[in-house]
Sequence to fold (357 residues):
Amino acid sequence: MSFINYLSREINCKIVYYGPGLCGKTTNLQHIYNRTNPDAKGKMISLATETERTLFFDFLPLEIGEIRGFKTRFHLYTVPGQVFYDASRKLILKGVDGVVFVADSQMLRAEANSESMDNLRTNLAEQGYNLDTIPYVIQYNKRDMPNISPVEELRQMLNTGNVPEYGAVATTGEGVFETLKSIAKLVLTELKRGAAR
Amino acid sequence: MASPQMVMYEEEFAQVQAVTNRLVQDANARVVFVIDKNGQLISASGDTRDIDTTSLASLTAGTIAATGGIAQLLREQEFATQYHEGVRQNVHIQVVSGRVILVVIFDNRTSLGLVRLRVKRATEHLTRIFEMVMAKAQDPFRNSPFSEITDDDIDNLFND
Fold:
Protein backbone atom coordinates (compact mmCIF):
# COMPACT_ATOMS: atom_id res chain seq x y z
CA MET A 1 0.00 0.00 0.00
CA SER A 2 1.65 3.17 -1.17
CA PHE A 3 1.61 6.32 0.91
CA ILE A 4 1.25 9.73 -0.72
CA ASN A 5 2.04 12.85 1.27
CA TYR A 6 0.92 16.07 -0.43
CA LEU A 7 2.63 18.39 2.03
CA SER A 8 6.11 16.94 1.69
CA ARG A 9 5.24 15.87 -1.90
CA GLU A 10 6.39 12.31 -1.44
CA ILE A 11 5.26 8.96 -2.74
CA ASN A 12 6.41 5.93 -0.74
CA CYS A 13 6.08 2.36 -2.00
CA LYS A 14 6.99 -1.01 -0.49
CA ILE A 15 8.79 -3.76 -2.38
CA VAL A 16 9.44 -7.18 -0.83
CA TYR A 17 12.19 -9.59 -1.91
CA TYR A 18 10.94 -13.15 -1.37
CA GLY A 19 12.56 -16.55 -1.95
CA PRO A 20 14.03 -19.66 -0.31
CA GLY A 21 16.75 -19.56 2.36
CA LEU A 22 20.22 -18.49 1.11
CA CYS A 23 18.96 -17.53 -2.37
CA GLY A 24 20.54 -14.05 -2.15
CA LYS A 25 17.76 -11.67 -1.10
CA THR A 26 19.95 -9.86 1.42
CA THR A 27 22.85 -9.84 -1.08
CA ASN A 28 20.57 -8.04 -3.59
CA LEU A 29 19.86 -5.30 -1.04
CA GLN A 30 23.51 -5.08 0.01
CA HIS A 31 24.57 -4.55 -3.60
CA ILE A 32 21.92 -1.86 -4.10
CA TYR A 33 23.05 -0.21 -0.87
CA ASN A 34 26.75 -0.29 -1.83
CA ARG A 35 26.19 1.08 -5.32
CA THR A 36 23.73 3.85 -4.56
CA ASN A 37 24.63 7.50 -4.17
CA PRO A 38 24.60 8.35 -0.40
CA ASP A 39 22.07 11.14 -1.02
CA ALA A 40 19.56 8.68 -2.42
CA LYS A 41 19.60 6.06 0.30
CA GLY A 42 18.95 5.73 3.99
CA LYS A 43 20.57 3.31 6.39
CA MET A 44 20.28 -0.38 5.61
CA ILE A 45 18.91 -2.31 8.55
CA SER A 46 19.43 -6.05 8.91
CA LEU A 47 17.70 -7.92 11.70
CA ALA A 48 19.86 -11.03 11.46
CA THR A 49 21.10 -13.87 13.67
CA GLU A 50 24.74 -14.12 14.79
CA THR A 51 25.42 -16.26 11.73
CA GLU A 52 24.04 -13.52 9.46
CA ARG A 53 20.86 -15.34 8.54
CA THR A 54 17.92 -12.98 8.29
CA LEU A 55 15.82 -13.27 11.44
CA PHE A 56 13.04 -10.79 10.75
CA PHE A 57 13.80 -8.54 7.78
CA ASP A 58 16.34 -6.34 6.00
CA PHE A 59 15.21 -2.83 5.18
CA LEU A 60 16.61 -0.30 2.74
CA PRO A 61 14.91 3.03 1.93
CA LEU A 62 15.79 4.30 -1.54
CA GLU A 63 14.94 7.52 -3.37
CA ILE A 64 14.80 7.11 -7.13
CA GLY A 65 13.92 10.60 -8.31
CA GLU A 66 10.95 12.88 -8.86
CA ILE A 67 7.79 12.42 -10.86
CA ARG A 68 5.83 15.61 -11.43
CA GLY A 69 7.32 17.20 -8.34
CA PHE A 70 6.74 14.18 -6.11
CA LYS A 71 9.83 12.57 -4.56
CA THR A 72 9.51 8.86 -5.24
CA ARG A 73 10.79 6.56 -2.52
CA PHE A 74 10.93 2.81 -2.42
CA HIS A 75 11.21 0.89 0.80
CA LEU A 76 12.89 -2.43 0.05
CA TYR A 77 12.36 -5.32 2.43
CA THR A 78 13.56 -8.92 2.42
CA VAL A 79 11.86 -11.77 4.24
CA PRO A 80 13.65 -14.50 6.22
CA GLY A 81 13.85 -17.41 3.79
CA GLN A 82 14.10 -20.30 6.21
CA VAL A 83 10.93 -22.39 6.29
CA PHE A 84 10.20 -22.01 10.02
CA TYR A 85 10.01 -18.19 9.88
CA ASP A 86 6.67 -18.26 8.08
CA ALA A 87 4.88 -16.07 10.65
CA SER A 88 7.45 -13.30 10.08
CA ARG A 89 7.14 -13.59 6.30
CA LYS A 90 3.40 -13.02 6.50
CA LEU A 91 3.90 -9.84 8.54
CA ILE A 92 6.40 -8.37 6.10
CA LEU A 93 4.02 -8.84 3.16
CA LYS A 94 1.49 -6.49 4.79
CA GLY A 95 1.00 -3.41 2.67
CA VAL A 96 3.28 -4.62 -0.14
CA ASP A 97 3.16 -2.84 -3.52
CA GLY A 98 5.42 -5.19 -5.48
CA VAL A 99 7.26 -8.50 -5.09
CA VAL A 100 10.61 -9.75 -6.38
CA PHE A 101 10.93 -13.52 -6.21
CA VAL A 102 14.61 -14.45 -5.98
CA ALA A 103 15.12 -18.04 -7.13
CA ASP A 104 18.30 -20.03 -6.48
CA SER A 105 19.44 -21.40 -9.87
CA GLN A 106 21.26 -24.40 -8.40
CA MET A 107 19.66 -27.73 -9.37
CA LEU A 108 19.63 -28.87 -5.76
CA ARG A 109 17.43 -25.92 -4.79
CA ALA A 110 14.68 -26.62 -7.33
CA GLU A 111 12.30 -27.96 -4.71
CA ALA A 112 13.08 -25.14 -2.27
CA ASN A 113 12.24 -22.61 -5.03
CA SER A 114 8.88 -24.23 -5.75
CA GLU A 115 8.00 -24.50 -2.06
CA SER A 116 8.89 -20.86 -1.48
CA MET A 117 6.81 -19.74 -4.44
CA ASP A 118 3.79 -21.71 -3.22
CA ASN A 119 4.34 -20.17 0.19
CA LEU A 120 4.45 -16.67 -1.37
CA ARG A 121 1.18 -17.29 -3.19
CA THR A 122 -0.51 -18.56 -0.02
CA ASN A 123 0.79 -15.80 2.24
CA LEU A 124 -0.17 -13.10 -0.27
CA ALA A 125 -3.67 -14.55 -0.54
CA GLU A 126 -3.99 -14.40 3.25
CA GLN A 127 -3.31 -10.65 3.04
CA GLY A 128 -5.87 -10.26 0.26
CA TYR A 129 -3.40 -10.09 -2.66
CA ASN A 130 -3.19 -12.23 -5.77
CA LEU A 131 0.23 -13.12 -7.15
CA ASP A 132 -1.24 -13.09 -10.68
CA THR A 133 -2.31 -9.45 -10.43
CA ILE A 134 0.19 -7.77 -8.10
CA PRO A 135 3.35 -6.16 -9.64
CA TYR A 136 5.81 -9.04 -9.60
CA VAL A 137 9.13 -10.05 -11.22
CA ILE A 138 11.39 -13.10 -10.92
CA GLN A 139 15.17 -13.16 -10.61
CA TYR A 140 17.15 -16.35 -11.31
CA ASN A 141 20.12 -15.76 -9.04
CA LYS A 142 23.49 -17.50 -8.73
CA ARG A 143 23.98 -17.92 -12.49
CA ASP A 144 27.74 -18.19 -11.80
CA MET A 145 27.46 -21.39 -9.76
CA PRO A 146 28.24 -24.88 -11.10
CA ASN A 147 25.32 -27.31 -11.42
CA ILE A 148 22.66 -24.75 -12.24
CA SER A 149 19.39 -25.42 -14.03
CA PRO A 150 18.99 -23.87 -17.50
CA VAL A 151 16.84 -20.72 -17.49
CA GLU A 152 14.19 -22.47 -19.67
CA GLU A 153 13.76 -25.12 -16.98
CA LEU A 154 13.46 -22.52 -14.20
CA ARG A 155 10.99 -20.58 -16.32
CA GLN A 156 8.79 -23.63 -16.83
CA MET A 157 8.83 -24.39 -13.15
CA LEU A 158 8.48 -20.90 -11.68
CA ASN A 159 7.33 -18.40 -14.28
CA THR A 160 4.01 -19.80 -15.42
CA GLY A 161 2.52 -16.27 -15.42
CA ASN A 162 5.18 -15.06 -17.84
CA VAL A 163 6.23 -12.09 -15.69
CA PRO A 164 9.49 -10.16 -16.35
CA GLU A 165 12.48 -12.33 -15.42
CA TYR A 166 16.20 -11.67 -14.99
CA GLY A 167 19.30 -13.82 -14.63
CA ALA A 168 21.55 -12.54 -11.85
CA VAL A 169 24.73 -12.94 -9.85
CA ALA A 170 23.87 -10.84 -6.81
CA THR A 171 27.38 -11.17 -5.33
CA THR A 172 28.82 -9.23 -8.29
CA GLY A 173 25.70 -7.15 -8.90
CA GLU A 174 24.85 -8.63 -12.29
CA GLY A 175 21.10 -8.33 -12.88
CA VAL A 176 20.43 -6.65 -9.51
CA PHE A 177 19.56 -3.17 -10.76
CA GLU A 178 17.73 -4.54 -13.80
CA THR A 179 15.47 -6.45 -11.42
CA LEU A 180 14.94 -3.43 -9.18
CA LYS A 181 14.17 -1.07 -12.07
CA SER A 182 11.71 -3.55 -13.51
CA ILE A 183 9.70 -3.99 -10.31
CA ALA A 184 9.81 -0.25 -9.51
CA LYS A 185 8.41 0.53 -12.94
CA LEU A 186 5.67 -2.08 -12.60
CA VAL A 187 4.66 -0.67 -9.20
CA LEU A 188 4.42 2.91 -10.52
CA THR A 189 2.51 1.76 -13.60
CA GLU A 190 0.05 -0.10 -11.37
CA LEU A 191 -0.44 2.98 -9.18
CA LYS A 192 -1.13 5.03 -12.28
CA ARG A 193 -3.59 2.41 -13.50
CA GLY A 194 -5.29 2.42 -10.08
CA ALA A 195 -5.66 6.21 -10.22
CA ALA A 196 -7.28 6.02 -13.65
CA ARG A 197 -9.90 3.49 -12.53
CA MET B 1 -5.87 -4.16 -3.65
CA ALA B 2 -5.89 -5.45 -0.08
CA SER B 3 -6.10 -2.10 1.69
CA PRO B 4 -6.80 1.38 0.35
CA GLN B 5 -3.93 3.69 -0.43
CA MET B 6 -3.20 6.28 2.24
CA VAL B 7 -3.14 9.81 0.90
CA MET B 8 -2.22 12.62 3.26
CA TYR B 9 -3.45 16.06 2.24
CA GLU B 10 -2.07 19.29 3.67
CA GLU B 11 -5.12 19.97 5.83
CA GLU B 12 -4.98 16.66 7.70
CA PHE B 13 -1.20 16.70 7.84
CA ALA B 14 -1.33 20.08 9.60
CA GLN B 15 -3.86 18.67 12.08
CA VAL B 16 -1.69 15.62 12.83
CA GLN B 17 1.35 17.85 13.23
CA ALA B 18 -0.56 20.11 15.65
CA VAL B 19 -1.48 17.08 17.79
CA THR B 20 2.10 15.78 17.90
CA ASN B 21 3.58 19.24 18.57
CA ARG B 22 1.21 19.65 21.46
CA LEU B 23 2.00 16.18 22.79
CA VAL B 24 5.73 16.99 22.87
CA GLN B 25 4.96 20.00 25.05
CA ASP B 26 2.24 18.54 27.26
CA ALA B 27 4.12 15.30 28.00
CA ASN B 28 7.50 17.03 28.12
CA ALA B 29 8.69 14.41 25.64
CA ARG B 30 11.81 14.45 23.52
CA VAL B 31 10.26 13.30 20.25
CA VAL B 32 6.83 12.21 19.02
CA PHE B 33 6.24 10.28 15.81
CA VAL B 34 3.17 9.14 13.92
CA ILE B 35 3.85 6.13 11.71
CA ASP B 36 1.70 4.16 9.31
CA LYS B 37 1.38 0.48 10.31
CA ASN B 38 3.23 -0.43 7.11
CA GLY B 39 6.29 1.47 8.30
CA GLN B 40 5.93 4.85 6.56
CA LEU B 41 6.66 7.92 8.66
CA ILE B 42 3.72 10.35 8.67
CA SER B 43 4.86 13.09 11.01
CA ALA B 44 7.53 13.88 13.60
CA SER B 45 7.72 16.56 16.29
CA GLY B 46 10.38 17.52 18.80
CA ASP B 47 14.12 17.09 18.59
CA THR B 48 14.52 14.69 15.67
CA ARG B 49 18.01 15.87 14.63
CA ASP B 50 19.95 12.82 15.84
CA ILE B 51 17.34 10.23 14.95
CA ASP B 52 17.16 8.21 11.74
CA THR B 53 13.41 8.68 11.41
CA THR B 54 12.95 6.38 8.38
CA SER B 55 14.61 3.43 10.11
CA LEU B 56 12.76 4.14 13.33
CA ALA B 57 9.45 4.06 11.46
CA SER B 58 10.21 0.75 9.79
CA LEU B 59 11.43 -0.92 13.00
CA THR B 60 8.49 0.33 15.07
CA ALA B 61 6.06 -1.04 12.48
CA GLY B 62 8.03 -4.30 12.67
CA THR B 63 7.61 -4.58 16.45
CA ILE B 64 3.91 -3.76 16.23
CA ALA B 65 3.51 -6.38 13.49
CA ALA B 66 5.41 -8.96 15.55
CA THR B 67 3.42 -8.37 18.75
CA GLY B 68 0.25 -8.37 16.62
CA GLY B 69 1.32 -11.83 15.46
CA ILE B 70 1.78 -12.94 19.07
CA ALA B 71 -1.66 -11.56 19.95
CA GLN B 72 -3.19 -13.56 17.13
CA LEU B 73 -1.51 -16.76 18.34
CA LEU B 74 -2.93 -16.14 21.82
CA ARG B 75 -6.34 -15.30 20.34
CA GLU B 76 -5.99 -11.90 21.91
CA GLN B 77 -6.88 -8.62 20.25
CA GLU B 78 -3.96 -6.44 19.33
CA PHE B 79 -1.55 -5.35 22.12
CA ALA B 80 -2.30 -1.68 21.55
CA THR B 81 0.27 -0.30 24.00
CA GLN B 82 3.96 -1.07 24.41
CA TYR B 83 6.56 0.43 26.69
CA HIS B 84 10.33 0.03 26.41
CA GLU B 85 12.40 1.24 29.33
CA GLY B 86 16.02 2.19 28.71
CA VAL B 87 18.77 3.61 30.91
CA ARG B 88 18.44 7.18 29.64
CA GLN B 89 15.46 7.06 27.32
CA ASN B 90 12.13 5.30 27.17
CA VAL B 91 9.75 4.60 24.33
CA HIS B 92 5.96 4.52 24.60
CA ILE B 93 4.17 3.03 21.59
CA GLN B 94 0.42 3.26 21.05
CA VAL B 95 -1.64 1.88 18.17
CA VAL B 96 -4.27 4.45 17.11
CA SER B 97 -7.55 3.26 15.58
CA GLY B 98 -5.85 0.06 14.41
CA ARG B 99 -4.27 2.04 11.61
CA VAL B 100 -1.34 4.21 12.71
CA ILE B 101 1.23 4.13 15.51
CA LEU B 102 1.97 6.95 17.93
CA VAL B 103 5.52 6.80 19.31
CA VAL B 104 6.73 8.95 22.21
CA ILE B 105 10.41 9.02 23.15
CA PHE B 106 11.07 10.57 26.56
CA ASP B 107 13.70 10.80 29.28
CA ASN B 108 13.78 11.52 33.01
CA ARG B 109 12.45 15.06 32.57
CA THR B 110 8.97 13.54 32.61
CA SER B 111 7.19 10.42 33.90
CA LEU B 112 5.48 7.42 32.34
CA GLY B 113 2.24 8.43 34.06
CA LEU B 114 2.18 11.85 32.44
CA VAL B 115 3.12 10.41 29.04
CA ARG B 116 0.29 7.85 29.26
CA LEU B 117 -2.23 10.50 30.23
CA ARG B 118 -1.27 12.83 27.36
CA VAL B 119 -1.04 9.98 24.85
CA LYS B 120 -4.62 9.05 25.68
CA ARG B 121 -5.87 12.50 24.77
CA ALA B 122 -3.73 12.68 21.64
CA THR B 123 -5.04 9.26 20.58
CA GLU B 124 -8.61 10.53 20.64
CA HIS B 125 -7.71 13.48 18.39
CA LEU B 126 -5.67 11.33 15.99
CA THR B 127 -8.47 8.77 15.72
CA ARG B 128 -10.82 11.45 14.42
CA ILE B 129 -8.24 12.82 11.97
CA PHE B 130 -7.38 9.42 10.50
CA GLU B 131 -11.03 8.52 10.09
CA MET B 132 -11.23 11.56 7.80
CA VAL B 133 -8.01 10.60 5.99
CA MET B 134 -9.32 7.11 5.23
CA ALA B 135 -12.74 8.42 4.19
CA LYS B 136 -11.05 10.73 1.67
CA ALA B 137 -8.82 7.92 0.40
CA GLN B 138 -11.92 5.91 -0.44
CA ASP B 139 -13.54 8.78 -2.31
CA PRO B 140 -13.31 7.71 -5.96
CA PHE B 141 -13.78 11.24 -7.26
CA ARG B 142 -10.77 12.66 -5.50
CA ASN B 143 -7.71 13.11 -7.70
CA SER B 144 -4.61 11.06 -7.10
CA PRO B 145 -1.31 12.57 -8.27
CA PHE B 146 -0.95 9.43 -10.38
CA SER B 147 -3.90 10.33 -12.55
CA GLU B 148 -1.72 13.04 -14.17
CA ILE B 149 1.40 10.93 -14.51
CA THR B 150 2.18 9.57 -17.96
CA ASP B 151 4.06 6.44 -19.01
CA ASP B 152 6.83 8.76 -20.23
CA ASP B 153 7.18 10.27 -16.75
CA ILE B 154 7.75 6.78 -15.37
CA ASP B 155 10.19 5.87 -18.15
CA ASN B 156 12.15 9.10 -17.62
CA LEU B 157 12.70 8.18 -14.00
CA PHE B 158 14.68 5.14 -15.08
CA ASN B 159 16.74 6.68 -17.87
CA ASP B 160 20.38 6.52 -16.89
